[in-house]
# Entry
Amino acid sequence: MKRISAVLGAALFACATAVHAEVKQAAADGFLIAFSEPTMATPAKTYAAVAAIPLWWDSEHTWSGSASNLSLKAEAEGCFCERWPGGSVEHGRVVMAIPGKLLRLETALGPLQEFALHGILSFWIRTDEDDGSTRLDIEYRVNGASASGLDAFAPKVDEVLGAQVVRLKRFLDTGRSDEAPATEPGKTPQAKPLKLKPPAKLPQSKPAKAA
# Structure
């Protein structure tokens, strides 16, 4: 128990920000964290942005020190991987991919992987029936043995995951995941629109011409 706490504290949570998602459930053998946020992006662009992990994931929370080494293939069995000259790691694997609606990964993030825990990270993309606006709902459920003491770690995982979600939302709404640099007095920073291509559509078959 002490070893798990030490590793998690040092490797996963040292660089966390003050941003929080909501811990919906927390027990010794598991927890559920949820985050919900509106976005100005369309469902197609939101889905494409979620899959573009190198563009919004924080480099501080990678093994190599650079988010550019991350990759995610948004299809069933697609790898959420990190590769660099000194090694490689599979952070997770896609178990469900419905473009514009849902991307779900099986993943024990960071050092959680070492302790034989099972995690499911779901990115739900929902459209409001009344005004047509887009909402991104993220859920992270982790389960383990009763001796794992996961209820003690839930707030810390909440903190780190919340920071990543803030970066993702900023990327969706402004085209950049980092905070805008300080500007001179009297000047207003200009947000750059997000430019992402939605997943390619399958070609439509043409009816055969009569002989």
